[in-house]
Amino acid sequence: MRTRFQLGLDDLRQRLLRMGGLAEQAVDRARQAYVDRDLIRCQMVLEGESQINMAEREIDEAAFDLLAMQQPMAVDLRFILAVTKINADLERVGDQAVNIAERVMDMVELPQAELPVDIARMGTAVSAMVRRALESFIEGKVELAQAVLEMDNVVDRMRDDAFIQLVKTMNERPDVVRQALDALLVARNLERVADHATNIAEDVIFWVQGSDVRHNVPAEPSAGSAGQAAPTPGH
Which residue in 85, 48, 90, 109 sits closest to 77, CA to CA? Predict the structure, then answer.
């Protein structure tokens, strides 16, 4: 029974990694679609949403089956709970990518306008956050997760600056209000992706250390756990 449980944990991990790859790909495609005004990439994002939604359901079912199989040890229980939460955040990352793609599709129908914000730079930073958050899960390393939490402050400042500049532009240039509004919505959705990446990083810290670092509560690692990789699930 224990061997079967360990195999189930390994399968759950692999399923989440595939889900993470789909979500990361969706964000990258949406970001590049904005930069290139690329309708083909937008369509790829929209078509990929069903895969992400299906993966979310399958991961939740697998996690619930493991919980029902036997009473997991503390670290295994934290792992399964973290997977279910990360799974939900990855699905929402996919939703935000769809929102961005839809905004790009609207922008392509409008005359191109020079706007005083660097949305592409923000998108690159957000993509890096998602990638780093997934790496922290793959390697079970708290320091990688902590780096994601620190990057969130940078993205928040980018979002705030974009809001200020784009609202100013809409007030001063009525002819580009729609383009500026689309850019503002893209920035808001990118910031939400960053929030989900932050949630994933926090869940990795919870899994590895058993520490709840939400709401800026500092982690309190157990003796000898700081900087170490998480134990392999099931061991």
Answer: 85
Q: Give the total residue count for the chain.
A: 235
* pLDDT tens-digit map of 177-203: 999 999 999 999 999 999 999 999 999
Domain locations in the chain as residue ranges = 2-216
Dihedral over alpha carbons 120, 126, 131, 133 (to 10 degrees): 170
CATH of 2-216, one of 3.20.20.70, 3.40.50.1380, 1.20.58.220, 1.10.760.10: 1.20.58.220
Please write the tens of the pLDDT for every residue from 9-62: 999 999 999 999 999 999 999 999 999 999 999 999 999 999 999 999 999 999
Three-class HEC string of 38-81: CHHHHHHHHHHHHHHHHHHHHHHHHHHHHHHHCCCCHHHHHHHH
**Mean pLDDT over residues 95-122, rounded?**
96
